[in-house]
Design brief:
The complex is a heterodimer. By secondary structure, chain A is mainly β. Chain A has no helices and ten strands. The chains are: A mainly beta, B mainly beta.
């Protein structure tokens, strides 16, 4: 039979615009969050991370915001470039015990940047 | 290039067969993680090894097993393959065991079960 694939959210922006990609996480015990970028045919690539004791962290052209009250994470990309086109995943790492190392990934968002 | 290598890049096999996927972590990394990425399930954690010992298990089928060798490379063994096992299999590595810290992903092995 025909398989049903995930229907990923999509975001289309113009080159130079700012992009905001959102993610809702599930586990209130998670204490570490990561954003990954995955280009076609490649493995996920680390972008930025944040611990639960922080609300905001900035990198080069990227900012991650964490709202623990509503269990929401966002990735802001400034001056988006065509090379930023990819699937973006948020991942959470629950604290403690046997959950160590066990990243739980969101479904991903497809970002398309138009020149 | 993340520094994590995976072989083979592509693998095509038949139902009922057994395959072995291989991963070499980045130099100095002691932890190896395996993930499965399929169209209908997304990216799913399978198993984590640290310095040769199993540390965490995800939704890994009993038909699947893994090990990490003294030289820190890891192998994922998939047996009695089914059509639904067709997916991308990624290996990732990190320095420590806690899972806090960047996991660097390899390029993946694309498994097709016919």
């Amino acid at each position: 039979g025909e398989s049903v694939g995930l229907h990923l959210p999509t975001l289309s922006v113009q080159e130079g615009d700012n992009s905001i990609i959102n993610c809702a996480y599930s586990n209130s015990a998670s204490d570490y969050f990561i954003w990954y970028k995955q280009e076609s045919g490649k493995g996920p690539q680390f972008i930025i991370d944040i611990r639960s004791n922080m609300d905001k962290r900035q990198g080069q052209r990227v900012t991650v915001l964490l709202n623990k009250t509503v269990k929401h994470l966002s990735l802001q990309i400034a001056a988006t470039q065509p090379g930023d086109s990819a699937v973006y995943f948020c991942a959470e790492n629950p604290s403690g015990g046997t959950s160590y190392g066990k990243l739980t990934f969101g479904q991903g968002t497809i970002l398309t940047v138009h020149p | 290039d993340s520094g994590v290598t995976q072989t083979p890049k592509h693998l095509i096999t038949a139902t009922g067969q057994r395959v072995t996927l291989r991963c070499s972590p980045r130099s100095g990394d002691l932890s190896v993680y395996w993930y499965q990425q399929s169209l209908d399930q997304g990216l799913q954690f399978l198993i984590h090894y640290y310095n040769g010992e199993e540390r965490a298990k995800g939704n890994i089928l009993e038909r699947f097993s893994a090990q990490q060798f003294p030289d820190l490379h890891s192998e994922l063994n998939l047996s009695s393959l089914e059509l639904g096992d067709s997916a991308l299999y990624f290996c990732a590595s990190s320095v420590g065991t806690s899972g806090i810290g960047t996991q660097y992903f390899g390029p993946g092995t694309r498994l097709t079960v016919l």
